[in-house]
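Colleagues,

For the teaching module next term, I've prepared a clean inverse folding example: a structure given as tokens, and then the sequence designed for it. I'd like students to try predicting residues themselves before seeing the answer, so please don't circulate the second half yet.
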């Protein structure tokens, strides 16, 4: 593992470790690829930030920042910012706005259901990462609490990348296990399907470590599957919740 990533990861932990907050444990959308059904309570903020390092044909490195805000008891807004290097180019990817709206709370056998819309704005990107059109995702997020320790989540929706006229179908499925309050493990399958190319199949897995109820560290690793040329990555991050 890159020593610089380890230094960044543990620095975040110590930087936030003095912060404390009573209440229920933090619930995050990172480090997996799925959007969760959870939305923040009204007037709460949550910062989720991390780094992603991967290798496909070339190395790539991103710093991801997501600031979440509870607009109401069932509606959440998110500001999204990604900075990094891809294909030897460095810059800012299109900044975005995301809206999450809870539609249904779990009533067995029906799962929690939340609608998610992600918009990325080309004019809020450096020229080398500016798409021709507006990238947008429309997703439905589902989640079932199977027991006190196990839960399952899945996403299904459409994604427009802003570079082509086609749309991709997005599918994710994940399972998480929390043997104790402070530690949870997850594994996930995620893919994209389009009408002009073969599906892109991927898997990842990771650990969430709860330092305080409002402070969490995470680490995850992943790879493409069923392809000769692998896209492999590692991500590490920290999430912190606070009130207005």
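(Answer key — instructors only)
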């Amino acid at each position: 593992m890159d020593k610089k990533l380890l230094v960044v990861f543990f620095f975040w932990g110590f930087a936030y470790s003095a912060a404390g907050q009573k209440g229920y444990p933090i619930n995050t959308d990172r480090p997996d690829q799925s959007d969760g059904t959870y939305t923040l309570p009204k007037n709460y903020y949550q910062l989720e930030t991390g780094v992603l390092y991967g290798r496909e044909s070339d190395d790539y490195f991103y710093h991801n920042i997501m600031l979440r805000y509870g607009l109401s008891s069932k509606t959440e807004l998110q500001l999204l910012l990604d900075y990094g290097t891809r294909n030897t180019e460095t810059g800012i990817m299109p900044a975005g706005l995301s809206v999450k709206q809870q539609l249904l709370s779990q009533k067995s056998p029906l799962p929690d259901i939340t609608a998610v819309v992600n918009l990325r704005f080309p004019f809020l990107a450096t020229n080398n990462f500016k798409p021709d059109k507006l990238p947008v995702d429309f997703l439905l997020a589902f989640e079932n609490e199977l027991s006190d320790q196990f839960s399952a989540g899945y996403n299904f929706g459409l994604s427009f990348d802003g570079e082509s006229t086609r749309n991709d179908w997005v599918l994710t499925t994940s399972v998480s296990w929390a043997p104790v309050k402070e530690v949870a493990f997850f594994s996930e399958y995620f893919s994209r399907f389009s009408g002009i190319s073969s599906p892109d199949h991927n898997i990842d897995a990771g650990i969430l470590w709860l330092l305080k109820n409002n402070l969490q560290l995470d680490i995850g690793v992943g790879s493409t599957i069923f392809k000769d040329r692998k896209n492999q990555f590692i991500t590490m991050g920290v999430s912190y919740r606070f009130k207005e």
